[in-house]
Amino acid sequence: MLVSLALTRQIVELQRAGEQEAYQKRLEAHGERFPPTPKTVIARRLQEFLDLTEDVDFDAKLVPAGSKMRFADPRYQE
Length: 78
Fold this sequence. Notes:
The chain is mainly α. It contains three helices and two strands. The chain has a domain at 2-55. Strand 1 (62-65) and strand 2 (68-71) form a beta hairpin. The longest helix has 32 residues, at 2-33. It starts with a helix and ends with a helix.
């Protein structure tokens, strides 16, 4: 009976250690996804936007086309 009790205790301790490790990993992932300060979130989102739009020409010229405006460069109109 003492052997099985010690073995059971060891199993429970290993499970707790595994659960604690998994919890810490989830906590870190949550902290990365949802930083504690809004400033960090805003900076990250702005950087993502800049990375996604680095090749966009925000000064692209528009020309009238009837009642609508179209890009002067046909590549942009596509």
